[in-house]
Amino acid sequence: MSGVRTTIGIGASASLLALAAGVSPALATGASRPASEHVPASVHKVEVLFQGTGQATARWKRGAKAAQLVELFNKLKREPRDTVHCDVAGGPQTTVTFKGAKHTWVATQSACTNVVVTRDGKGQPTLLPSKKWEAAISHDIGR
After folding, report:
1. 1.25.40, 2.10.25, 2.60.40, 3.30.1490: which CATH number matches 12-140?
2. Residue-wise over 28-51: b if at least 16 C-beta within 10 A, else e?
């Protein structure tokens, strides 16, 4: 994996800096996403895959647990424009795959990245992870 990305400077200080620079604080702290970027609530099959050094752990989630992951994913905010990223390559990575009747969303996150998303193989806006999202996916793979 190369070109991994992460956000630096999110929070109240970033909002103040954004205002001083004439940028909307919503863009500085992550904007909400339109419904067209959401995984439908009808998705009932979610795979959580952790790939670490010499190990891979996959867990399929269905029912209430899958619905919880869909809800948490849909609450994630977009990464702000002009986000500063690091370029760390390699390392452990978690991939969450949402399989719907018409589309498949793949959300990938590693130590130095936000949530990189594709839908049917096409790039979508990168998202900011939340503590609840990270806790849920870590719990699902037994970390």
Report:
1. 3.30.1490
2. bbbbebeeebbbeeebbebbbbbb
